[in-house]
Amino acid sequence: MKFLKRNKVLILVVLIFLGLVVVVAEVKNLLVPDEGKAAYGNRLDGIEEHKIKDNFYEEMEIKLKEDTKVKDVSHKLHGKIINLIITVTDETTIEDAKKIANSTVPMFDEDDLKFYSLQVYVKKDNSLLNNFPIIGYKGTSTKELVFTKDREITKEEEEKTNEE
Question: Which of 16-20, 36-40, 128-132 is the least confident region?
Fold first, then answer.
């Protein structure tokens, strides 16, 4: 009892300090997201079982470039979304671009298509052509690509490209 009477100020300071530590920790948890958790939560569970072969994209690029309308192919895997970017010649029509984009779907394994979503961007080098890019999207539960609304090239852009 004598110890408590002699050191009551010290005990009070220690209790206040411990209380402040607890309050600061709780405020930090409310304001700062938990850095230990993945950005995608558990949505990427099972991605290890669905690895795409190392040379798959190179083989796809070779097959797509067999079409003379295809100039370049690139890809990016972002979580469970595969983004393919296909650059086509300026003379390519929207229908031809859709055929090229649709030809990518059968190149994937059926199991991978049930796991990954696929986005195919078809673009042209000429930025004046406002009917491109077109984008096709295939979710994990759909069978084929769904495209953005078709846009017609305007007269103004058509005249500019004819002048070049």
Answer: 36-40
Task: Write down the pTM of the prediction.
Answer: 0.66
- Distance set, CA 62 to CA 5, 49, 92 (Å): 85, 26, 19
- Percent with pLDDT over 90 in the chain: 20
Element (H, E) at 16: helix 8-31
pLDDT digits (tens, 9 = 90+) for 32-58: 766 666 555 677 777 778 788 878 888
Nearest to 110 by CA among 134, 136, 138: 138
Token pair of 131, please?
A: 């009917």
Distance CA 72, CA 86 (A): 6
Q: What would the 3-class secondary structure string for 87-148 be?
A: EECCCCCHHHHHHHHHCCHHHCCHHHHHHCEEEEEEEECCCCCCCCCEEEEECCCCCCCEEC
69, 96 contact by CB (below 8 A): yes
Residue-level length of the chain? 164
Q: Nearest Cα to 146, choosing from 101, 81, 91, 106?
A: 101
Say how far apart CA 50 and CA 40 lie, in whole Å: 17
Distance CA 122, CA 94 (A): 9
How would you classify the pairing of strands 81-88 and 146-147?
unpaired
